[in-house]
């Protein structure tokens, strides 16, 4: 009787506990069980199992991710621009000339169409006025404080809550399998280094981005790195693989992006010898996020999508492949 009771108890425990353990074992719970998820997980398994013919040594397991539109949202404008806008408003009293100088005048009036008319030259004026003429420490502190309170104009979420939960899971899944994860973004490198390590778990030295020139100086008897009002390097399009080679020194095994600005990085990754995976995130969910591609002025996806389809890269359909977009 005792043996029968133990047997029944074991059966009951298996029925209750095993399904719970199985569910908890899913490293990508925010991904639907589609072919996309299966392809991603299969590639990771094949490249990390020692007996696999596709095995990749740990030191070669490099995964690079774009940031805007890949790890967090980018509509209706790149989030770094919202930082610049708020900085202009905060500093307006110190710059009376901005009342008549474009694009500052339009921005202070709330005329974003006027800001757009100023084109890239106007955007660069905004960036230089809000990102330069301070030390790297001062800039980092400014971004850090802004990130604690600044909210997205459409969702009212903190910008750090506008990250994609499925991508957070993917970063963790890759790291748990020996992959070293990097951000390679067109965004400002120091802007990202101020908050991304806490949000993504990626250390500052593994964040690559656009930069302005800096200079070593002594200010008030202390050595500092000062940010100068001059572009140093634009980490976009062909600049991405160039910077990867210069800073990382290895061709990635995995590259993930979402726009034409990532095309060169994705192509360069896929062209390497051995197993390589290029992933393109397609924004198709107008209800939970935004739906856009070739007609968008932000994160334009025109040339990269047909290349991805032709070369059989993995294309993530946000509406179909993700059961959750944001963490909350």
Automatic annotation (TrEMBL):
The keyword Magnesium applies. It catalyses: O-phospho-L-serine + H2O = L-serine + phosphate; O-phospho-D-serine + H2O = D-serine + phosphate. Its EC number is 3.1.3.3. One of its GO terms (molecular function) is magnesium ion binding. Pfam families: HAD. Keywords: Amino-acid biosynthesis, Hydrolase, Magnesium, Metal-binding, Serine biosynthesis, Signal. Its cofactor is Mg(2+). The keyword Ubl conjugation does not apply. GO terms for cellular component: cytoplasm. Pathway: Amino-acid biosynthesis; L-serine biosynthesis; L-serine from 3-phospho-D-glycerate: step 3/3. Residues 1-23 form the signal peptide. It is an enzyme of class 3 (hydrolase). GO terms for biological process: L-serine biosynthetic process. This is phosphoserine phosphatase. The lineage of its organism: Bacteria, Pseudomonadati, Pseudomonadota, Gammaproteobacteria, Vibrionales.
